[in-house]
Amino acid sequence: MKRTTTNTYTPKPRWEKALSLNYVDPQTLESNKETLELYNSALLLVNTELMLAFPELSYERDYRQYPVQDIPGAVHCFMTKTFYWYLACDECDFFIIHYNFSDCPFEAEIRKLLQPFSNSPFTTQFKLQPNLVTAFKRISRLEDSKFFKAW
Q: Is residue 4 part of a domain?
């Protein structure tokens, strides 16, 4: 006899729960909105000004549109050989930003945006192993070309 299930329940993605008062308290919701705003404002600056001034190949993936089952908390990633910007939602429904630089020509501009969040546990300089350049080369080999953009 074949086993079947009638349960059609699919859990909401972490990022969606993190932006809903049905799942998080008001203080967490406010913190998540601030973190998301910081992430998006920096990403906008990078995409509209900084990458035009310092063109190089970039990888960008919005995990809300292109989810990966193995990375349930992933929200968005932007990466070049010199800059890494990653937004995730942890198991406690907090948005967190990981970032890194490797001789990045616009590091000062990004750090200026991060200044108000310098003591926040939700923004962390994250060292990619073994380094950012190697991590970018690895992702270039593994990911679909639709996520890459030449400036």
A: no
